[in-house]
Design a protein that fits this description.
The chain is of the alpha+beta class. The protein has three helices and three strands; from the N terminus they run E-H-H-E-E-H. The protein is globular and about 45 Å long. The relative contact order is 0.24.
Length: 103
């Protein structure tokens, strides 16, 4: 399962949680920021949500009005064990998506 997250939301989350305004230039930077966020909010450590095996991060550009006006967006792909029920996967992903939506 995959979700999209705007670069600005990731930057804002790190700023609020860690007090540092970071620069995200690529998928590697975004992955580090996502790891910081997940460690700070303890989303999967509480045991309420199933932890994915991995989160793959891919960067892409969305052009809003012209070729020079674009936003960098990151696609987060959640990799779970095969035996994890679909509703558990959806609940975990929704919890993270809700966190970003509240920023």
């Amino acid at each position: 399962m995959k979700i999209r997250v705007d670069r600005d939301r990731i930057v804002k989350a790190v700023k609020e949680l860690e007090g540092v305004e970071i620069v995200i230039e690529n998928a590697g930077d975004a992955r580090e920021a996502i790891d910081l966020i997940l460690n700070k909010i303890d989303l999967f450590k509480e045991g309420q949500y199933v932890r994915p095996q991995d989160i793959l991060v891919t960067a892409f550009q969305e052009y809003t009005t012209s070729a020079v006006n674009y936003n960098i967006v990151f696609m987060l792909e959640f990799v779970f064990e095969e035996k994890v029920p679909m509703n558990s996967k959806v609940a975990a992903i929704k919890a993270l998506q809700d966190f970003f939506a509240e920023l």
